[in-house]
């Protein structure tokens, strides 16, 4: 695995570039990302390219031995371009334009903006495509950051109408699929269909789901436009995009089909603060991040590209600036996060950023260097991690074990019709993933369309639209599989199946969901050693329940290797179920302390201590030889060993 950083030569005097590059190499870094926000410096006026500074930056970094990932600057179109076509910006759900003054001020559907993107990308590719220092290209930056995937602009409206006409061919088919006879919502032509915003009450959920599908497809074609140009002028270089954490606004699997490497931007402390985690968890892990946040995304994005190639493009090196509260990482965590990415098979961990900026929106975001160019704590830990990586050397790959199916479409569907404020798809998936990790299991997160050959155990947290092909593939595997609540509860057109939920899954398990309930906070159905909260289903079946709540309703049913969970997953229960499934699959499990996580890569086992106290892993070594760290792992410590 290589280490790198994000660098902005346009932010600094040219006189320090060479020293910066030299210090990067001395710290153990070998790759650097540049250029992704530099459009106004590359083209300060329409058609007036200023290449000299970028030529010198690339030459300086390359001469120092740094490999360069060059970003296309389309996330930050310059003011003159926005002024030339003001309708290129996205429009929010309230009909307000997302104006110039920060970043990501464009609508994916605006065709003239796409033409301008193609022009600047081609100009860059023609100039630098064959440059030996350029090893990869990053398209744009963080598609969708700041809620910019779903736009309600005129361009998006017209694009959506074309998309609908292509999908349904005739408006009568659309009316039938959406159930528009309800509330007299029928259309006479596709030209009458508007985006699903600013309605008096909630819009038709089928309308919303199709709009989300359309918006996701716009990202796919926008990305492909750039990739095709770059491949034509820069053969042999990797194509990369940097995804974000806990972000589902577009289908990352679809975008990744045109990429070589899926990367993501890892900010464990910011994500802990900003998302659904309890106050107790936020306090317990305030300087470490939840033990499963980083790993969750490592495993998710490893499943995006063919061959499982993935990287961390931005790694948090210290306090960030954008969360509600921004503590500093516990000493050792930057090193831990780096080595944990290695344990999950990353090709690169790149720190954001090289030097903390003393100006503009991100001046409070730490870097590897302070604004005065002194090394920050994150820089010291990056150097330590570089030494660890060199010591560990090449490790290899790990055999398939557990597949967890992740669906972006499921997230859109539940957002359109949650049927309960606390039913969050991402949180449901995360809780099941965390339960698997607490058993010491290696997890691959894959698309519902992925091949499942070789997996010994399959977990489907929820898949409301269940394709017959997936049911067929799972039936052929004949391995333990769990389907979570609301699986098979909708057709592709967002209707209740004629034979009720779980729809086509009834081919594998003879159950029928006759009623569902969402439970407000404070409500719970008691089980043996757990409470069912948030969601519970009433199931009709002749099967005996494997598990029941106290009122007699079954919540887990099984038929052969197939299990169905008819509730939100109570933590003690789901962990017990996964342990039983792993035993059936002949997969070894561990009883890990709450704050300890392990991961196997090839012949090497890793352990990571996310707690505030020491953690003894002697029992887990099983006679293996320690090659990094000690059996008594300090807080934020890492150990690695080879099996006996």
UniProtKB/TrEMBL annotation:
InterPro entries: Beta_galactosidase_Trimer, Class_I_gatase-like, GH, Glyco_hydro_42, Glyco_hydro_42_N, Glyco_hydro_b
Family annotation (CDD domains): A4_beta-galactosidase_middle_domain
Record EC number: 3.2.1.23
Keyword field: Glycosidase, Hydrolase, Metal-binding, Zinc
Occurrences of domain Glycoside hydrolase family 42 N-terminal (ranges): 6-391
Key word Metal-binding present: yes
Beta-galactosidase trimerisation domain sequence ranges: 401-587
UniProt keyword Oxidoreductase present: no
Family statement: Belongs to the glycosyl hydrolase 42 family.
SUPFAM superfamilies in alphabetical order: (Trans)glycosidases, Class I glutamine amidotransferase-like, Glycosyl hydrolase domain
Catalytic activity line of the entry: Hydrolysis of terminal non-reducing beta-D-galactose residues in beta-D-galactosides
Pfam families, per the entry: Glyco_hydro_42, Glyco_hydro_42M
Enzyme kind, highest EC tier: hydrolase
UniProt protein name: Beta-galactosidase
